[in-house]
Design brief:
Blueprint: H1 3-8, H2 11-22, H3 29-52, H4 59-70, E1 75-76, H5 77-84, H6 88-100, E2 104-108, E3 116-120, H7 122-142, H8 148-167
Antiparallel strand pairs: 1-3, 2-3
Helix pairs in contact: 2-3, 3-7, 4-5, 4-7, 5-6
InterPro entries: HTH_MarR-typ, MarR/SlyA-like, WH-like_DNA-bd_sf, WH_DNA-bd_sf
Pfam families: MarR_2
Organism: Arthrobacter methylotrophus
């Protein structure tokens, strides 16, 4: 890679070229894809944090609110944990804060005193209804320049990678 090509390339291309120089015998092809997936995820998360900042909730808190907003019924804390991929301890901490600021209600299950049912309050639902469209707009900005067919093809390929990750 010439100096001009190196300067004009994206971060992942430069990263792969650096590894090729440092360890020329290794096949770094996967960096082209997995590296980009990871970098896009990080950039998307940062963008989402900026979108959500004015609302006063973190991305993880918003994930909890969205899990509840999608559900047709109150959810057990462990169901929220499964949907958000947070740890049980994180779910407990986040839901305590969300309850304290009036965005969710938490009720102990009568049959099992350790179990908790979580539900959005009207304020929580309102926050999701306001912020979720803003989050979708940010996602759409990441996809600018891709046709509908290209987006569908990318979704199909990424679904296959996601399935591999879930099996791993």
């Amino acid at each position: 890679m010439t100096t001009s090509e190196y300067q004009d390339s994206d971060f992942i291309t430069r990263l792969r070229a650096s590894w090729k120089r440092a360890m020329p015998r290794l096949d770094t092809t996967s960096i082209e894809l997995v590296g980009r997936i990871n970098r896009i995820a990080s950039q998307s998360i940062q963008q989402l944090d900026r979108v959500l900042a004015p609302s006063g909730v973190s991305r993880s808190e918003f994930d909890v609110l969205c899990a509840l907003a999608r559900s047709e019924r109150p959810l057990r804390a462990n169901e929220v944990t499964a949907q958000t991929m947070l740890s049980g301890a994180a779910t407990t901490k986040l839901t305590a804060r969300l309850q304290a600021v009036g965005l969710i209600s938490r009720e102990r299950l009568e049959r099992d005193g350790r179990g908790v049912l979580l539900e959005l309050t009207p304020a929580g639902r309102s926050l999701v209804e306001t912020q979720f469209p803003r989050c979708l707009e940010a996602d759409q900005q990441l996809l600018q320049g891709l046709s509908n067919d290209e987006q569908a093809a990318l979704a199909t390929l990424l679904r296959r990678v996601s399935e591999n990750a879930e099996r791993a």
